[in-house]
Amino acid sequence: MIGRVSALLRAVAGFEPRGSSTTELARATGLARPTAHRMLTSLAEEGLVDRDPKSGRWSLGPELYLLGSLAAERYDITDLAGEILRGIARETGETAHLSARRGDGTVCLASEEGSFPLRSHVLHVGRRLPLGVASAGLVILSHLPDHDIDEYLSRTDLTSEWGQAHSRAAVEQRIAETRLAGYSTNPALLVEGSWGMGAAVFDHRDSPAWALSVTGVESRFRADRRPELGELLLREAHRLTQLLRGHQR
């Protein structure tokens, strides 16, 4: 039951800020529509979701804001990362992102747009993607222990939603390439012409808990420029890791 409630809340979050219909949420979670409606009604009574009386669309509720504001003191690193994101965006001209690992996926916490007028719109604040998908999810997965990677890929079929470019063999190949380079590259695997690169940020246990990434159009990720972008991401990811460790003491 707790798992279904969590999945439903994550689904509601995935449709922010426009809100979502009961049918959309039922489809996203695999729940029967009457079950989804009953659970949403109960969550609304607790203030965890809210329903627009005119449109009937569901959004995250005020109680989640209160709970989140208390949790932010421990988990929110966006203030520390803000200067770094702005620096990456300013130096590269691309959009810089901070993503956090959440279970078997990542969620984008913050973004900073660069000066280049053409942008990729694959990643935005609040978007969740599975580990191994996009540059942030790939670099975090690549830095996990081998047994954790094997366990995850053994129970996860990424091809059903993301295509054969995300078969186990293809993901394992990209993991090997990421480990060799230190940073990840997503060569337009989600949206044609939209590239991304990422570097892992580590917590006090040396676990890859976050990722810095840049996204943009393919012409901005030429082969001769990618090492430069990778080195910048690695340097700034290391700096953020050190800032976090100093902050957590």
TrEMBL record:
Gene3D superfamilies: 3.30.450.40, Winged helix-like DNA-binding domain superfamily/Winged helix DNA-binding domain. This is IclR family transcriptional regulator. InterPro entries: GAF-like_dom_sf (IPR029016), HTH_MetabolicPath_Reg (IPR050707), Tscrpt_reg_IclR_C (IPR014757), Tscrpt_reg_IclR_N (IPR005471), WH-like_DNA-bd_sf (IPR036388), WH_DNA-bd_sf (IPR036390). Signal peptide: none annotated. Pfam families: HTH_IclR, IclR_C. It comes from Rhodococcus zopfii. Keywords: DNA-binding, Transcription, Transcription regulation. Residues 1-62 form the HTH iclR-type domain. The keyword Magnesium does not apply. Residues 63-246 form the IclR-ED domain.
